[in-house]
Amino acid sequence: MTTTAAATARILADAGIERVFGLPGGEVLVLIDELRRAGVDFVLMRHESNAGLAAAVYGKLRRQPGVVLTTLGPGAANLMLPISNAHLDQEPLLAISAQLPDDFPASHTHQLLPLHETYRPLCKSVGKITCDNVSEVVPRALADCMRRPFGPAYLTLSAREALRPLHDSSPSSRATSDAGSAASKFTKSPPLEKAKEVSGLLAKATRPLVVVGLAVDPSNAQRIRRWVNEWRLPVAVTPKVKGIVDETADNFVGVVSGMAADGMMCDVLAAADLRIGLGLDPVEVDKTWHAELPIHWILESPNVSDNVPPGTTLVDHAELLDALLGQPAPAAWPAPFKAFQNKRRQMLNGQSFSAHTMWPGSIVQALADALPPDTIVTTDVGSHKYLFGQFWPSRQPETFWMSNGLSGMAYGLSAAIGAKLARPEAPVLAAVGDGGFSMNCQELETAERVGAPFVTVVLEDGSYSLIKLAQEGKKLEPYRMDFRPIDSVGLAQACGVEALRTSNPDELASAARAAVTRRRSVVIGVPVDYTDYRGLF
Ligand SMILES: Cc1ncc(C[n+]2csc(CCOP(=O)(O)OP(=O)(O)O)c2C)c(N)n1
Q1: How far apart (Å, rounded) are the C-alpha atoms in residues 179 and 125?
Q2: Do the beta carbons of residue 157 and residue 96 sit within 8 Å?
Q3: Whose alpha carbon is nearest atom 8 of ligand 1?
Q4: What does the pLDDT read at residue 537?
Q5: Virtual torsion, Cα 141, 144, 146, 147, nearest 10 deg
């Protein structure tokens, strides 16, 4: 007899899902057991939020939805952060949690929350898995996550329904889906026509800037690289797509959308006489330039929340890039942003004012020199994210991960676990602040247990420094932004991970290099002075 839980597990396994991340409750034990029988590993984590974040990165890297499983009530409530992140950061995430059965007495309110109503506005679909609809609802939710823009879908399965024998003839309770409301609403441009238009605009431009954003597909990385390199086009990227072009190349101008040096990058955007937004999604932009400056949008799917700038048509990126590559460059643009590029590079060469701390720029430089180009870097959220987001020299696609549409703290370590499980051969570096680290450092134990070692660099400044700097910027009294330093090294050791502290760039580099070659997790605490960030922002 096949039960609803067994059928759910089989559908996930048949869809190529090899791991489900989560934290259990009694109500999902049967499904976890069926997953085990179907050969799907359950990655036990220490907070549902972290499990959801890890799952989404794991899924996106594997070109499939990440799957997170939680209990009902509190476990399901803890999914708000990863579901919001998957929504705003375009990550494919199928979240499944338990729920009370429909036929429970109305007086039973223990752990009862309106989960579908809560998650519906953030999800591409929500639904209830039943013995009647499992073979329809689960595949559809998986497909919804992978419909561009990628995003979350949410399903519930009650412990009672999980045990019911399959009865799959009448699709009585379907998932409510927004399928069909996205790309099909918008007009498509023929790629050749669009290529002519783009080429024509470029022919007239003297300072063009291609801005590549979140919504490009990494499978187009080689085409994008060939286009900007063969035509010698100046190119910038948003943080979420770092690595789509080689950031050590001459034509790389910088990272736009809220990172370090953002004032300068806004000046770059204003100085350009043609801005081409290739897959650019304003969800990453915390300023207003995307609404104020004219942008020639090249989108192949709507942006987050199904937005498409007025008058914009959609076009297949691969076909458009092939058409562009079939033509010669319509003009030459001899490094129109050179002065900005030089200034950006020089910003890293500062020096800390304190003898006991390391200049933040030296941290990036030491690690970039030490670690191989295929290193996957994750960051948390804070000043360190701005630093790495702008200055980490990404060289390969899909090697940089941060929360930027949502910008939610506690992303860095979770993302590192998901990335390492998806790409076991790649070295992984998590760069986090001491605030974010203390939100989820317990996942270091998870990383060790599930065989996902990575290097964590904790930038220790004893404060929520980004917010402290914002407080200063608003000319407010310094108030409650500092905490007593928690010993990151001691915390890591308590989780069974090797750890050291250094303020010496060479020591930092050799510790990071040794850790990735020995395939061991190591945490490196690096004291920084928050005032040093002032020179970088
Ligand atoms: C979940 C969440 N809570 C609060 C914030 C607001 N916030 C953004 S950055 C930041 C400070 C982060 O401090 P830390 O992790 O130490 O990094 P640092 O800024 O010092 O590099 C805070 C509180 C957020 N983005 N996400």
Answers
A1: 8
A2: yes
A3: 382
A4: 87
A5: 170
Token pair in block for residue 239: 């943080």
Q: How far is the CA of 478 from the centre of ligand 1 (A)?
A: 16
Sign, CA torsion 8/41/401/481? positive
Query: Is 176 a residue whose pLDDT tops 90?
Result: no
3-class DSSP assignment, residue 248: coil
Sheet with 235-237: strands ordered across = 252-255, 235-237, 208-212, 274-278, 296-298
How many Å apart are CA 504 and CA 317, to the nearest integer?
Answer: 45
pLDDT tens digits for 7-43? Answer: 999 999 999 999 999 999 999 999 999 999 999 999 9
What does the pLDDT look like over 146-174, one tens digit per residue? 999 999 999 999 999 999 999 855 444 45
Gap from CA of 383 to ligand 1 centroid (Å) = 8
Categorize the per-residue pLDDT at 69 as very low, low, confident or very high, splitting at 50, 70 and 90.
Answer: very high
- Give the pairing type, strands 176-177 and 125-128: antiparallel
pLDDT over threshold 70, residue 143? yes
User: Rounded mean pLDDT of the chain?
Assistant: 95
**CA 414 to CA 408: how far, in whole Å?**
12
| C-alpha span between 8 and 38 (Å, rounded) | 10
d(CA 69, CA 195): 44
371 near 516, Cβ under 8 Å?
Answer: yes
Q: Which atom of ligand 1 is nearest to the CA of 437?
A: 15
Pairing relation of β-strands 274-278 and 296-298?
parallel
Cα 91 to chain centroid distance, Å, stands at 7
Neighbours of 217 (CB within 10 A): 17
Cis previous bond, 397, omega within 30? no
In this predicted structure, the answer to whether residue 205 has a pLDDT above a threshold of 80 is yes
pLDDT at 171: 45
- Measure 402 CA to ligand 1 centroid, in angstroms: 13
Pocket of ligand 1 (CB under 6 A): 380-384, 407-409, 433-436, 459, 461, 463-467
Between CA 360 and CA 469 the distance in angstroms is 15
| pTM, rounded to two decimals | 0.96
CA distances from 470 to 256, 320, 530, 532 (A): 19, 42, 12, 14
At residue 127 the predicted structure's pLDDT band, cuts being 50, 70 and 90, is very high
Would you give the distance in Å from CA 528 to the centre of its chain? 25
Measured CA distances, 370 to 180, 283, 415 (Å)? 47, 33, 21
Query: Is residue 189's pLDDT more than 60?
Result: yes
Q: Are 526 and 363 in contact (CB under 8 A)?
A: yes
* Integer Cα distance of 137 and 7 in angstroms: 11
